[in-house]
Design goal:
- With 324 residues, this protein is an alpha/beta fold.
- It has two domains: 190 residues, Bordetella uptake gene, domain 1 (D-Maltodextrin-Binding Protein, domain 2); 100 residues, D-Maltodextrin-Binding Protein, domain 2.
- It has eleven helices and ten strands.
- Strands 1, 2, 3, 4, 5, 6, 7, 8, 9 and 10 form a ten-stranded mixed sheet that branches.
- Helix 2 crosses helix 9.
- The longest helix is centred in the N-terminal third of the chain and has 23 residues.
- It starts with a helix and ends in a 6-residue tail after the last helix.
Length: 324
C-alpha cells in the first residue's frame, strides 16, 4: 500500500513538472489580448495600457484584438473557446462576464465554467446626470418629481442590457419602482446628445464621457453609484447618501482566460498586473479614465464574479429584463 501511494505521488509530481517548466518560460511568444469592445473606448484604452506594461515586464507582445459586438458576446466566445495555454486572455467586465448569462436565453459560453479569473484591474462608479432644465437638484427631488409625473420622464442608455441600463433600472426599483421610460441608443454618445437637447430627462453614465459636461454646467450630476464618493467627482453625493440604503452598482474591468489555464501562469499574470497597479504613472492614467485600481487574488476575483452573477440574476429575473 505504501509503495502504491508513493508511486501515485511521484506520478503526480512528474505530470506537474512540465507545467512548472512551461510557466517559468511563459510567455515564449506573443499573447493575444481579446477586447470585446470597439477601439478608443475606455475598455480598449485600459487594455492597451495594461497590455503595454505586460509586454515590458514579460518581454513578449500582448497583442490587442478588438472583437466587439453583441454586448461583448463575440469577443468573450472567442476567448472561451481558445486553447487554455495562457496565450489568449480576455478583458472582461460586468457585461460579458456577469449579466449576459441572465440577460440572454442562449449564450455560447458560461462565465463560470468557461473562464479562469486571472486578475482584477480597476473599478469605476457610474453617475446619474440630468438635463439642467429638469426641476430636480438632488436624487430626493428627482424621486419626488418622478412619482408626481409617472411615465412623463425618460432616460437614455447606450443600449438594452448595457451597464447603465441595468443600473438605472436598479435605481428605479430601489427608489420605489419609479415609472421612468427607457430610451435605448446605440452607444453613450447619441444618448448624451439627446439628453443635452432635452429629448430625454437623464442618463446613467460612466464618469469620463460626462465629466467635462458636468464641469461646464451642461449637465447636472445627481449621484454616483459607488459606496464612497468618487475621487474624480468628490462634490457629487452617493446614492446611499441620497437615502437609498446599500445601493451600489460599480463597473469593473479584469483579465480572464479560458478555463483550465495552468495555475502557475494565472499566478504569474496576477502578480505582474499587481505590479502594474502599483505604478504612480498607471494610477494617474487610470484616474483619467474615471477608474481606480482594484487588487485581488484570482480566487477573490472568482468569488466576486459568482456573487455578482447571483445579484444581477435575481434582479433581472424579478423585473423581467431578459433580452429575447
Amino acid at each position: 500500500m505504501r509503495r502504491w501511494t508513493m508511486a501515485r505521488i511521484l506520478a503526480a509530481v512528474f505530470v506537474a513538472l512540465p507545467w512548472v517548466s512551461y510557466a517559468e518560460n511563459y510567455p515564449a511568444r506573443p499573447v493575444r489580448f481579446v477586447v470585446p469592445f470597439p477601439p478608443a473606448g475606455p475598455g480598449d484604452i485600459l487594455a492597451r495600457l495594461v497590455g503595454g506594461e505586460l509586454s515590458k515586464l514579460l518581454g513578449q507582445q500582448f497583442v490587442i484584438d478588438n472583437r466587439s459586438g453583441a454586448n461583448g458576446i463575440i469577443g468573450a466566445e472567442i476567448a472561451a473557446k481558445a486553447a487554455a495555454d495562457g496565450y489568449t486572455i480576455l478583458l472582461g467586465n460586468v457585461g460579458p462576464i456577469v449579466v449576459n448569462v441572465s440577460l440572454y436565453k442562449k449564450l455560447p459560453y458560461h462565465p463560470v465554467r468557461d473562464f479562469a479569473p486571472i486578475a482584477m484591474i480597476a473599478r469605476s462608479p457610474q453617475v446619474l446626470v440630468a438635463n439642467p432644465s429638469l426641476p430636480a437638484n438632488s436624487v430626493r427631488e428627482l424621486i419626488a418629481l418622478a412619482k408626481s409625473k409617472p411615465g412623463q420622464l425618460s432616460y437614455g442608455s447606450p443600449g438594452a442590457g448595457s451597464g447603465p441600463h441595468l443600473t438605472m433600472e436598479l435605481f428605479k426599483a430601489s427608489a420605489g419602482k419609479l415609472d421612468i421610460a427607457h430610451v435605448p441608443y446605440k452607444g453613450i454618445s447619441p444618448a448624451l446628445t439627446d439628453l443635452l437637447g432635452g429629448q430625454t430627462s437623464m442618463v446613467m453614465s460612466n464618469v469620463v464621457p460626462v465629466q467635462n459636461l458636468i464641469a461646464t454646467g451642461k449637465l447636472r450630476a445627481l449621484a454616483v453609484t459607488s459606496r464612497q464618493r468618487s475621487s474624480i467627482l468628490p462634490q457629487v453625493p452617493t446614492m446611499i447618501e441620497a437615502g437609498l440604503a446599500d445601493f451600489e452598482a460599480i463597473g469593473w474591468f479584469g483579465v480572464v482566460g479560458p478555463a483550465g489555464m495552468p495555475r502557475t501562469i494565472v499566478g504569474r499574470l496576477n502578480e505582474e498586473i499587481g505590479r502594474i497597479q502599483g505604478s504612480p504613472q498607471f494610477l494617474g492614467k487610470l484616474s483619467g479614465l474615471g477608474s481606480e485600481a482594484w487588487k485581488m487574488t484570482a480566487d477573490e476575483f472568482a468569488a466576486l464574479i459568482r456573487n455578482d452573477i447571483d445579484k444581477w440574476r435575481r434582479f433581472i429575473q424579478e423585473y423581467k429584463l431578459a433580452i429575447e
